[in-house]
Amino acid sequence: MEDIKPPSRVKGMKILQKGEFDTTYLVPAVKIENERIKKFLQENKKYMLKQRAVKPIIDLENGEKLILLNPSSKEYLQDLQLEYHNLELHYENFNHLDIFQAILPDHLDRVSSYSSIGHILHLNLNEDTSEYKHLIGQVLLDKIPYAKTVVNKQNVINNTYRFFEMEILAGEENFITKTKEHGCIYELDFSKVYWNPRLSTEHQRLVSELSPTDILYDVFAGIGPFAIPAAKKGCTVLANDLNPESYRWLENNVKINKTKISTYNLDGRDFIKTALKSHLIDIWKTNNKTNIHVAMNLPALAIEFLDEFVGLFSDYSTTLPVGEMPVIHVYGFGITEQDVLTSVISKLPGLQLDDLQLRTVRNVAPNKNMFLIKFKLLKSILFRSDFEEPPTKKKLCSN
């Protein structure tokens, strides 16, 4: 007996017609007296029919129960006195995976995954699925209880402010939402800021490396997925983002999570040259051994910003008391590990391959991987000067 699925006539449907899913299946069933129900269920519950919005136990007029069974269980229940029941099924009785498998041509990729950001479902559909995209959106809206808006990512990410270009496939045009991650609450406008729940594990992994007394400089902080949990942990955090909307939601999320973070709305280079530099000098002046971390999560461009650290303190003499060197956590895209390692080395003269730790974060697309490169900055890089300035122009700092 075949598995229960939508009728074959819906294959290739591009405009959702719910009535076309009406069908009748002959399913095995067994009559059980009321007094035997409890024992029967204890022994055979796993064989009962499990179908969306279908009650597998039907009350009969004579005080008996009719137990609907999974068609694939028939061979295991041959010792029972089976009968067959006409089960009417409709669109409401199939989940979204059943429907997509029934509708989409066999050569297309299955639509099996999506990202959830509060009430928003975020898809990344291939071009060959474009004819079905609005149907896909409507089905998800119908089948996912919390979904109110379904969007599809376009091919372009705004390079300046890092948010997806997207189109609404189904539901209301409401992009302001709330989501939770590792005990933190984030509010955001998904149409104007970058948020990727698939990086949740990466956010947690980096923060887990921090101790409560550490300092974190978050150069491309977004709405705070590194900065806020780090601050909750007790770290001193300076967080920056160029996107005014990200900065606004970052400040909002700092408040709702009751954390203390110094926030900035600057270009990444300006943040490094001003806020990071000034704060790091103050830390070093205490002559302590505080651990310093710099997060640079802008995979498309972050490696390009590394050269800002070259000679960052060239205007200071070596009398500046120097504490721990910053540990850089920079993310980058590349085809191979060698691609990103070479890029990092090219930006920081004096750094060697042996100084770098690399980890693959995830595969983003064919021939495109996201990597994390971690290393400790060298003092020679921070204080590098291509020419010797006159002594009178040097800033002397001491205890």
From TrEMBL:
It is found in: Mitochondrion matrix; Nucleus; Cytoplasm. It is an enzyme of class 2 (transferase). One of its GO terms (biological process) is tRNA N1-guanine methylation. Residues 114-379 form the SAM-dependent methyltransferase TRM5/TYW2-type domain. Its main location: mitochondrion. It comes from the Eukaryota. Belongs to the class I-like SAM-binding methyltransferase superfamily. TRM5/TYW2 family. Belongs to the TRM5 / TYW2 family. PROSITE patterns: SAM_MT_TRM5_TYW2 (PS51684). It catalyses: guanosine(37) in tRNA + S-adenosyl-L-methionine = N(1)-methylguanosine(37) in tRNA + S-adenosyl-L-homocysteine + H(+). The keyword Cytoplasm applies. InterPro entries: MeTrfase_TRM5/TYW2, SAM-dependent_MTases_sf, TRM5-TYW2-like_MTfase, TRM5/TYW2-like_N, tRNA_Gua_MeTrfase_euk. The keyword ATP-binding does not apply. Involved in mitochondrial tRNA methylation. Specifically methylates the N1 position of guanosine-37 in various tRNAs. Methylation is not dependent on the nature of the nucleoside 5' of the target nucleoside. This is the first step in the biosynthesis of wybutosine (yW), a modified base adjacent to the anticodon of tRNAs and required for accurate decoding. Specifically methylates the N1 position of guanosine-37 in various cytoplasmic and mitochondrial tRNAs. Methylation is not dependent on the nature of the nucleoside 5' of the target nucleoside. This is the first step in the biosynthesis of wybutosine (yW), a modified base adjacent to the anticodon of tRNAs and required for accurate decoding. Monomer. This is tRNA (guanine(37)-N1)-methyltransferase. One of its GO terms (molecular function) is tRNA (guanine(37)-N1)-methyltransferase activity. GO terms for cellular component: mitochondrial matrix; nucleus.
